[in-house]
């Protein structure tokens, strides 16, 4: 069952790019972001009520608000970048998040970052740079892919803040009510820009559009729970390998559904930062592993 839950979470995350891209012609970024949180809260709330019969949310904790702010930044910039760029572009969020978590571990929590950690961070940065560059001349880079890379960088930093909040909150809250508290606040935070949005669309929203928005909400609400339950049941190595495979699936779906060009630079950069993930999660018999990836889990 653990492997099924892990695969469900991995596949759910891999579909985010194509789902956001497919609905971006019908609604603007503010509505996509709001829907990801709103429907996520609905489905997560239903799950908790069925399982525990009541909600135990907490809004007085500082890390709940920091996590909500971080996740809001993550979704706002990720959706914006996917809308103007490629559907697979959100593969950049994960390596940026990893680097930000390693930096935070050393700066905020005074934890020693090992040579293995810095090596992994370097590989992640190199991979992001290669994918962001994608062989474009400098003028094209500044005008197009450079902007989307910057947006995904902001999204990755926001995601890292959310992970840091989970790391602190899991000490005093269960994962369901923790995510419910964070996502509910996020729903209100991202609702603010909606009245000022452009609401531009090239086609009216249809049944498929609503289905996509609901699916994005399900991913927000339930994938984190699937992942949390999975890591209790499967080996850490399996979590590292299967969890990071969402990057490869994201590239595959973008090619199959939108025929987006997958260049050698994208493949090469992906291989480099995946190597960084493997280095970061590599276990040695003589040492206990303590990484940002484990903190996220």
From TrEMBL:
Predominant location: membrane
Compartments it resides in: Endomembrane system
Transmembrane stretches, start-end: 30-50, 117-135, 141-164, 176-196, 208-227, 234-256, 262-280
Gene3D superfamilies associated with the record: 1.10.3730.20
GO cellular component, one term: membrane
Residues covered by the EamA domain: 1-132, 150-281
Pfam family, one: EamA
Name recorded for this polypeptide: DMT family transporter
């Amino acid at each position: 069952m653990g492997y099924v839950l892990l695969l469900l979470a991995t596949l759910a995350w891999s579909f985010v790019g194509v789902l956001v891209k497919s609905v971006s012609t019908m609604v603007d970024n503010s509505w996509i972001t709001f829907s990801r949180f709103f429907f996520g809260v609905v489905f997560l709330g239903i799950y908790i009520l069925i399982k525990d019969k009541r909600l135990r949310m907490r809004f007085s904790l500082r890390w709940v608000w920091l996590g909500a702010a971080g996740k809001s930044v993550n979704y706002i910039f990720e959706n914006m970048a996917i809308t103007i760029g490629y559907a697979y572009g959100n593969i950049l969020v994960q390596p940026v998040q990893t680097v930000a978590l390693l930096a935070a571990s050393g700066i905020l929590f005074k934890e020693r970052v090992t040579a293995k950690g810095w090596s992994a961070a370097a590989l992640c940065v190199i991979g992001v740079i290669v994918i962001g560059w994608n062989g474009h001349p400098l003028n094209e880079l500044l005008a197009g892919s450079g902007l989307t890379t910057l947006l995904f960088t902001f999204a990755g930093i926001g995601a890292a803040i959310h992970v840091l909040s989970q790391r602190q909150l899991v000490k005093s809250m269960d994962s369901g009510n923790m995510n419910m508290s964070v996502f509910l606040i996020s729903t209100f935070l991202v609702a603010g820009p909606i009245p000022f949005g452009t609401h531009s669309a090239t086609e009216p929203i249809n049944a498929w559009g609503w289905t996509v928005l609901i699916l994005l909400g399900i991913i927000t609400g339930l994938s984190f729970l699937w992942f949390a339950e999975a890591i209790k049941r499967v080996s850490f190595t399996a979590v590292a390998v299967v969890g990071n495979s969402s990057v490869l699936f994201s590239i595959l779906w973008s090619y199959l559904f939108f025929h987006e060009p997958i260049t050698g630079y994208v493949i090469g950069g992906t291989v480099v930062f995946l190597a960084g993930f493997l280095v970061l999660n590599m276990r040695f018999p003589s040492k206990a592993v303590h990484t940002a990836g484990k903190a996220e889990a």
